[in-house]
Amino acid sequence: MKTIDDLQVAGRRVFVRADLNVPLSDGTITDDGRIRAVVPTIARLAEAGARVIVASHLGRPKGAPEARYSLAPVARRLGELLGRPVAFAGDTVGDSARATVAGLADGEVALLENLRFNPGETSKDDAERGAFADDLAALADLYVGDGFGAVHRKHASVYDLPARLPHAAGGLIATEVGVLRKLTDDVARPYAVVLGGAKVSDKLGVIGHLLERADRILIGGGMAYTFLAAQGHEVGDSLLQEDQIPAVRAYLAKAAERGVEFVLPVDVVAAEQFPDLSAKTPANPVVVAADKLTPGLQGLDIGPETQRLYAAKLADAATVFWNGPMGVFEHPDFAGGTRALAQALVDTPAFTVVGGGDSAAAVRILGFDEAAFGHISTGGGASLEYLEGKELPGLAALGDSE
Predict the structure, then answer these.
(1) Exposed, middle or buried by CB within 10 Å (0-12, 13-18, 19+), for 366?
(2) In the beta sheet, which residues pair with residue 88?
(3) Residues recognised as catalytic
(4) What is the Cα Rg of the chain in Å?
(5) How far apart are CA 326 and CA 54, in angstroms?
(6) This prediction's pTM
(7) Alpha carbons 348 and 316: distance in angstroms, whole number
(8) Is the bond leading into 162 cis (omega within 30 degrees of zero)?
(9) Which residues, including other chains, have CB under 8 Å from residue 328's CB and lie 6 or more apart?
(10) Per residue of the chain (402 residues), what is the pLDDT tens digit?
């Protein structure tokens, strides 16, 4: 895979596919981690005299403009972080985009409007997607892929566009791939994996793959209750995917056969109803044993005994991968498990990787120093698919012979 060191960028239009899919609340960015992650690549290109055209998606618009998904707030924040103006094009390949790009001088930066405002970006039809890629290619001379959070998508700007321009990986993607190789090739052991989040169905593929590699797998979040139910425990009104119980039982049996330690919560923090995340009002939480959840209660976080257990299981690890919060960390009554898990990663001497998405947001929201972790990924879904052994379209496109 070529890097930007292999490109001559001075005076040339360089299309940078970034992942600027940041959370917004009433037009305000609540976590700018993904913007900050790509700033070094953009700054380096600009300082080398490139005319930088940045593009990204935000949210899931249906192929047409939606004001709530505009990248205009991102352009402002990107300019602040770069310390230089960022021109903003009001469309993707229309008059505004062409005029904005034409107006760039060497070392200047522009951001296009949300790529998903054009149906060709996400189309499953190769011709429609290719036509949009052709229009994007007309704006640039070179392509740099640096949106790691999107490389598992076969989208026009991720997969088709690199085939139309000389291309290379940006610094962020190069770093992400290097870290993930440490989790798959010649891993330092013991290797512990912590998986949380809501749905067990989202993680079964990676669990199956990690059973061949990990020494310990710790489970938290909403997905834990399907595992507890698979062991025959009552889970009250907790999140449960009953249709996944047979698959979970099969994985638990396979783990036992292979000697992989599977660790589940021994206690949970529960409440009678899901909390109001906007009001942050008290939710009257109670701590109960994981096998004593009764109807009317739903588990919303791992309990204090589980927090101590998980910290002990990570203390002697040499490598730790964490993806998914331990509970509803957005509410103070149910943030303790995720905070304790993050602290355990800080305290262990292991090489620690936080696998993007909600986990990365939790680290920042809960006030941890990002430098205390080995690596914080910008792509949760992409990280999981890489660890699952899948070919990622965006990485395959960057690894071509061009």
Answers:
(1) middle
(2) 111
(3) 34, 199, 357, 381
(4) 22
(5) 34
(6) 0.88
(7) 7
(8) no
(9) 274, 275, 277, 300, 301, 334, 335
(10) 899 999 999 999 999 999 999 999 888 998 898 999 999 999 999 999 999 999 999 999 999 999 999 999 999 999 999 999 999 999 999 999 999 999 999 999 999 999 999 999 999 999 999 999 999 999 999 999 999 999 999 999 999 999 999 999 999 999 999 999 989 888 999 999 999 998 899 888 889 999 999 999 999 999 999 999 999 999 999 999 999 999 999 999 999 999 999 999 999 999 999 988 887 788 899 999 999 999 999 999 999 999 999 999 999 999 999 999 999 999 999 999 999 999 999 999 999 999 877 888 899 889 999 999 999 988 888 988 998 888 999 999 998 433
First to last CA, the chain: 9
Question: Which residue type does 82 have?
Answer: L
DSSP label of 104:
P
Alpha carbon distance 23, 41 (integer Å): 21
Nearest CA to 19 out of 170, 159, 148 is that of 148
Residues 7 and 51: beta-carbon distance below 8 Å: no
Q: Are 149 and 381 in contact (CB under 8 A)?
A: yes
Cα–Cα distances (Å) from 281 to 277, 285, 304, 340, 366, in that order, read: 8, 11, 21, 22, 18
Query: From residue 99, how far is each of 13, 16, 86 by CA, in Å?
Result: 13, 18, 14
Token code pair at residue 123: 């189309």
Per-residue CA distances from 311 to 266, 268, 307, 329, 341 (Å): 13, 15, 6, 18, 7
Rounded Cα gap, residues 362 and 341, in angstroms: 11
Count Cβ atoms below 10 Å from residue 285 Cβ, excluding itself: 22
Residue closest to 91 by CA, chosen among 118, 68, 121: 118
What is the DSSP track for 228-281? Answer: HHHTT--BTTS---GGGHHHHHHHHHHHHHHT-EEE--SEEEEESS---TTT--
Alpha-carbon span 322 to 375, nearest angstrom:
11
Largest interatomic CA distance in the chain = 67
